[in-house]
Amino acid sequence: MRSLLFSLVVAFFLTAGFVAAGDPFDGPMPPLKGEAVKEVDCEHCHVCEQPTYDEPCLKDQSCPRDVAAAKLSPELGPDVIILDQLEDLYVPVRFNHRAHATMTEMDGGCPTCHHFTPPDRPHPECRECHPGSVLLSDIAQPGLKGAYHRQCLGCHVEWDSSTECEICHAKKAGGALHGSATTFTTEIHHTPIEISDLIVMKTEYEEGDEVPFHHSAHVKLYGAECSLCHMHQNCSSCHVHAEASHPMGDPDKIDLHDTCYRCHDDNNCEYCHGRAHDDRFDHADTGWLLKSYHASVGCTTCHARQNNGLTKPDPRCAACHPDGWAEGKFNHSDTGVRLDETHVEADCVDCHTDGFGSPAICSDCHDDDRVYNHQTGFESPDSPESAD
Amino acid sequence: MDRREFTKLLGSMGLALVPGKAAASHPHGPLADGVGVLVDTTVCIGCRKCEWACNRSNNLPEEELSSFESKAAFDSYRRPDASHYTVVNEFKPNGEAIWAKTQCMHCEDPACVSACIVSAFKKRSDGVVAYDLSRCLGCRYCILACPFQIPAYEYDNAFTPQVRKCTFCIERLDEGKAPACVSICPVECLTYGKREELIELAHRKIERNPDRYVDHVYGEHEVGGTSWLYLSSVPMTELGFPDLGTDAVPCVTETIQHSIFKNFIPPIALFAFLCQIMWLTREHGNSDDAEKSDTVDAYGGGDEGGTAS
Amino acid sequence: MIEAAPIRHKFFTRGVYVLLAIALFGAFFAAKRFLYGIGAISNLNDQYPWGIWIAIDVASGVALAAGGFTTAALAHIFHRHRYAALVRPALLTALLGYTFVALGLMVDLGRFYNIWHPIMPSMWSGHSVLFEVGICVMIYLTVLYIEFLPIAVERFMGRVGLPGLLGSLNGLIEFLLRLFDRTLSRVMALFIVAGVLLSCLHQSSLGALMVIVPYKMHPLWHTPVLPLLFLLSAITVGFPMVILESIWASRSFGRKPEMHLLSSMGKAVSVMLFVYFSFKLGDMIIRGTLPWLLQPSLEAFMYLLEIIGGVVVPAVMLMSPKIRHSVPGLLASALMVVLGVVLNRINVFITAYTPVYATERYFPAIGEIAVTAGLIATLILMYRVMVMVFPVLAVETEADRAIDGRRDTQKGPPIKIAALAGRRNQ
Hints:
heterotrimer; A: 388 residues; alpha+beta; two-stranded antiparallel sheet; 16 helices; 8 strands; disordered N terminus; B: alpha+beta; Alpha-Beta Plaits; 2 domains; three-stranded mixed beta sheet; two-stranded antiparallel ribbon; 9 helices; 9 strands; 11% strand; disordered C terminus
């Protein structure tokens, strides 16, 4: 049965035309001997000769690892998984999937563990590929036990240098099951990570030795994911080695220019250095004052990420609100135009004749050529002075 | 004549004894169907489960699992002994802990097999170096000969001591199972399989992770090759393994041995040569030595005379 | 005519009591070994599986017993008949030496009761150097006993008179003795040659034993020509052993040593020592191991002690006729050669052996020393018994007697060997 499953999976990969990338340890490789080698070669996905975990050098975004990273979020996975396929000396493991999935967002995301996800399907379970025991016919493929333990210990041994089995599963005493799977605690949650509002970094730059960094604004307002800056950090960076290292990696090797340049590659030195501490990015400077709800959402709610920048959004309301608002929920004042008694009574399409979200056409009712501008209010082409 | 003859004799024996330049080709060598185990020390977590499984599988003492969970065992360097066929040691060559399991390497051309006086050690066709207690007379030459210093002896057993070493779990192998240590390893840092495929796998691993491994598969060529192979992030000599060349250890002795006893021609020739000297020098010896005697008895103290003068 | 006779001498002297005490002390430890195991009385362990029981009891024992085959070869193959008087004592030394190698092995072997296993064709192990040594020693020991048979025949033929119940066997034994007497002398030549051949084979193979541990031996001693060096040294030590044993036996029994024979042997020994030395030196030059001698180490010291004290100095001493012809001079130089060879065997098997994981260097435990010393003491006592029972030592002539002042020795009736052979010739 298991081998049938395995062959199905292999067949799937073959038809899909994908081969998995490497894994953090030495996970699945195409079989040493067999048809798979003939039909799908490494170059199908990998550009370089020796892909590694950190640099898989995948050809395009559609290869498994990135698919998984792009499509799935921790919330989609299960909260707890009970690993009981190999129960022997120890009771089954209750694996807190949610906590791990959330934390791994800091680094590689789901593919840190789910290293072999084909496109257009959920992550396969470990046992789909890893047989219960190593097959003599394919010694390169770790068995299920090895796959589990390497996956877990790969990180755990790093954080606490401990290989105590009881960290994950209680030992059965005297062959009988003491402490069943259900009583073993799984309610592990990571304590909330405190993010400071402002970090002022001292530099040796003469024209301005201070660089204010609005940490929470970057995360909450601009929607930067942790791993955008804290790249290639893992659990051990904060846990075991917290004293010796830095959230940004090896203190001796950190060059924050690299980190900031990931987004601010167009800015000059003075953009950061010597900037006033309270001089934060103001969306009004772009000509679109954020009010009410819009002020509370992150950038990426409206702007899509493109390379390291953001796209220009479609300014029409319907681009984001295609279905409009429920009856009585829309406050027109939020748009900057407080409707007077006359206009409140009008239907939306009386003014916005080209559809909800398009500019109001005043001339249908009013015979002068006035138009309405968000910033300046109604104005007539004849009279340049504003009328707000 | 005697001195000259004697020198000649020495010369001829010297020819027979000195092996013709280094070692000639050795008859053994890697087996086609040999199995082995690849140990990836970069994966090992030092849990010592293999020690426990080994002791349990081989009916050795200390069967309690909890006694193997103590990390205090890593405080000192341990060697396999009569009641432990395998031990795991901890090394910190660069600060980070590396664990390495030690057991019989099951050489392709084992010194113990070559050394044993009664063929109590045999290299099976599947690569296992097996011990036959019923033959053993306890000379311990195998222990002396082993380049990895593996076989251990029961020195405190007065009448029925035996040589102890990793059995490769022959019974399990014959049942189609992997050795006990391989089966229990939680991280599967031990891979059991055909030796040839293991070597191929080992080189692939190195190729895929050049930063992770030293580019050397320990045991691929050491002393003519071993069934157990090791991958590591530092040279194996830093993990307590001896620095060995690629020549099989028994090469030189077996070459000497085989040239001395080639079809028994050299010993028979020497025998004939000695008889010839004995015959040729008979008259000469008499006249040279004893004037009175007229007969030569083959055995000393016979008829030849005059020695007690 | 060589006349040999059992020595008539008081058996118990002060020296004998000392030897007995040493033997008993060794027996105590040997008993302990058979009750509690090898580990109980020795410092042997998994790093040092072989200790002085192999280096001294076996390796040195076999080397020092070489006098048997070298003297036999000299007297009977090269027909230097004037040395025939030394053949029997040398034969007895070899016989006892090899017997005690076997006895020593009984203590050292873990399963001593399986010592016969190498004889079984099903267990033959043609690639094993130790197998060759074992088989050769077994056959050679048998050959030595066969070579000794005529002495037993000579002693007991016509005089078999076992008391009591055993008396019924008298006829059978008498028949066997006469049978041996008729047949042995015809084939003895073959046995003597076989003895020399076997000796050459296993004396060299003893050296080959340590060739298998290239990674665990000090380069000063590890060489593929170790077998040849062992053979050369065994041949070299054969005569000094005869000299030593002859002088000591003469002193002990108040006889006069056969100095004229012994000093000419000494001259040959000198030549052989130089041959041996040149081989050793040549080997070192070829392998480039001379620099090891310059390092201040135990190994270098032991090597120099072995070579200078055991080879060079006695070789030079024996070149001098004055030293060669004086009893103390000859004795001293022969003793140096013997000790040099013993030291060589100890060096090869113990000093040079550096196991990979040893935490401390091996040094024999008191139990090991006691057993070895006990065996040597027993060996000497057995020699004394044998020469008093069997006609081994040559009868002193009137001339000898005249020279020798000490007259406490009484000889039994001389047995004329010629008489036995003479019957055949008639």
